[in-house]
Amino acid sequence: xxxxxxxxxxxxxxxxSRALARRFLSPWLSPLLVVPGVLxxxxxxxxxxxxxYLRGGRWLLALLGxxxxxxxxxxxxxxxxxxxxxxxxxxxIATGSAVAVVxxxxxxxxxxxxxxxxxxxxxxxxGSPVLAAVFVIVTALVGVVSGRALxxxxxxRSPIARGALLGMGAHGAGTALALELGAVEGAVxxxxxxxxxxxxxxxxxxxxxxxxxx
Length: 214
Fold this sequence. Notes:
Blueprint: H1 2-24, H2 31-45, H3 50-62, H4 64-70, H5 72-77, H6 79-84, H7 86-102, H8 115-124, H9 129-153, H10 159-181, H11 183-213
């Protein structure tokens, strides 16, 4: 029963903060920022241990995988356009992933990929999957705030460029923002997000050997 209460509370907070963010167009009302903050206050106020919350929250966490897979739908719809810019997109994914790796510590290495991939990569490298998830959220928040400003100020006329920027810089949250800009932006952002995740996921054993040698 307690687990169900926390599931309902989490979903209700998300819906409310999402509505506020759309109404006032403020990144500071993003569900990524509001929901965890309010939940922490509620957990502390009710003296509820995190494992108790996680009994219900883990079901929401389990939906991250299917949600990531669902990004394949817009990819399929725009497959011809994506195929046309395949070389540029692969180069961007490789460059963005390389920058993320060389500028990070172990648990921060997967911070520029979506949460399901990030937690698995952190586990493979001997880091903390929970800490990796926190860094993913922080990266998403920074990426959405700065990405919205960059899209508005940089001369990015192509929806491919706008989608790639948001997908690499803010992964899932960036893809949600990209979908608001347009269907092509959303599809490209989803592709870049998943591509970067797969690249780091399959490259994790190599990184593990490199870290061990160091």
